[in-house]
Amino acid sequence: MLSRTASCIYWMSRQMERAESIARVLDVSAQMTLMPGGLAREQIMAPLEITGMRDAFEASGAKVTPDEIILFFALNPNNPSSIHSCLRQARENAHVVRGKITSEMWESLNTTWLEIQGMNRDRLKRMGVPRFLDWVKERSHLFRGATFGTLQRSDAFHFSRLGTFLERADNTARILLVKAPDFFAERVADTTAADYYQWASLLRSLSAFETYRDIYRDSIVPAQVAEMLLLRADLPRSLHACLHEITQTLGGIQGHSGKEAKRLAAELHARLYYGRIEEVVDEGIADYLNGFLADIYELGARIQRAYLEAA
Fold first, then answer.
1. pLDDT tens digits for 107-133?
2. What is the distance between the alpha carbons of residues 247 and 11, in angstroms, rounded to a whole number?
3. Residue 51 CA neighbour count, 13 Å, CB half
4. What distance lies between CA 261 and its chain's CA centroid?
């Protein structure tokens, strides 16, 4: 497969996953602002901190309000991390490789792009933010389902999966990093209702609330949240599950390129497979996640050099 083709497929899927991730972050942020004390500045600013877009938002001159931040991340074409920008870039990449993806994938992506083009501030207000964010997540699920259900298990499929799970691992780590200081406060006995709903919202943002209840059958304990989202292999959005998929996918790509990427992916997977939450807490959740994000960035760079750049 040509490196340009592989790159377009990889970024097509990565941008679709990013659009869904932004929708999940905004959904939690919107829910938290409805709670007593939810308008605290750190809650409002959380999406900016998670995506690293705080400076860009402040430079835009917009007021720091929930509505303006949601608009910035939903429809602002000048924000490269907005849902609008992610869907545009995904559609542009899909257009380049139209002959390498299935008609179901193209129709799903193209329809999503056409629909969001008709979205503006007034229509978003009429539709309602929760309904809009649910729509984004549903369109991402539809695209991913079309990919998994219709695309031949060739290099195109592998590069699509790589983009999806690299982006997912990065997003999970970033969401946890914003909450990292809370992991140091083991306040099980005096957890307030506000604490409970914050942790429940975090888990729901990663589709993990029901899983937590099924596994632990306990009140929400920060260390158990960390263990599940970092080290559980059976939670689709955990770091362990993402690295397992990345390692397996890299192994399915034919050729002699990418040995360094495969080596690093295997090392990261092994750390998560054999890791214990006690060791993570001893190191410090924030330090652990910052190190993981650095490793994921390096893994993405090695994949870029090995497969996605023209020789």
1. 999 999 999 998 999 999 999 988 999
2. 18
3. 26
4. 21
What is the C-alpha separation between 42 and 23, in angstroms, rounded? 18
DSSP calls for 6-72: HHHHHHHHHHHHHHHHHHHHHHHHHHHHTSTTTT-HHHHHHHHHHHT-HHHHHHHT--SSHHHHHHH
Q: Is the pTM of this model over 0.85?
A: yes
Task: Compute the distance between CA of residue 55 and CA of residue 289 in angstroms, rounded to an integer.
Answer: 22
Among 21, 14, 27, smallest CA distance to 132 is for 27
Looking up tokens 């179901």 gives 104
Q: Under the phi-then-psi rule, with left for phi > 0, alpha for psi from -120 to 50, and beta for the rest, what region is 244?
A: alpha
Phi-psi region at 204: left, alpha or beta (left = phi > 0; alpha = psi -120 to 50): alpha
Sketch the domain layout of the chain as residue ranges. Answer: 1-151, 153-311
Quick: pLDDT tens for 135-165. Answer: 999 999 999 999 999 999 999 999 999 999 9
Residues in the chain: 311
Contacts of 286 (CB under 8 A, 6+ apart): 177, 180, 181
